[in-house]
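Hello Y.,

Per our agreement to keep a running log of every chain we model this quarter, I'm adding this entry. I've kept the format consistent with earlier entries: sequence first, then predicted structure.
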Amino acid sequence: MTGPATSRTIGDLTFQEIGTALRASSILCLPMGSMEQHGPHLPLNTDTVLAEAFTARIVARWGEAYDLWRLPSIAIGLSREHDWAAGTISLSVAGMTAYLRDLTGQIARALPARNLLIVNGHGGNRGILEALGRELRGDFGLNLGVLHLGAMISPVAGTGVPEIHAGKDETSVMLAVAPELVRSERMRELKASPDGAAARALILDPAASWPWSSADKRLAEQGVIGSAREASAELGKTIVARVVEGAGAVLKQLRENQN
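Predicted structure for the entry above:
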């Protein structure tokens, strides 16, 4: 096939090309982000920018091997932990549930592919995606998986300040994929992050969960949970390469789950 279809973006196809370009074994990749504060140095749409950037790179790297196709992005997520800040827009749990059910139903109706990988750029979306996963699979017949970029970008370290939101790792990746959107001069103005003990207790404890907020001074400085001042484009490029290669194992597992 020649022309726009070679981009592996669903929207570039005509309706007549859908039936020949896609098969039941094809994997649809759905970028999912958010619209929320990311400190004074990163834009509100950071999570969507990253979800789209990683989806594009994953499709470029693994598209032929796993027959990947990119869907339009979801740009609004669940972001109530950041709703103290201007510009943060969050759906409700009920609204997101209805949206995901409607969207998944339409995907199943309109496309022959039966594999769906959600490339999730926002940690706050994780809970609802896990809760709905079985419903979406059972009700719409889609083999579903979610790749959580935050966990892949910043594996939980045993000591120090954890990188959770707009810190060193996330800022580094933005410097690598969208440097024009980073307010580098404001990175230098950020104060040192709070001690990591509160973040581990209120955000990362596997035994208890809390409705935490990035306005909590125990957790964040100007909405940042991490050490953005240490970010660099070089680190970002290393993280991007690691995540894109690591996505191969997720795609392999998704395809095995279909069998």
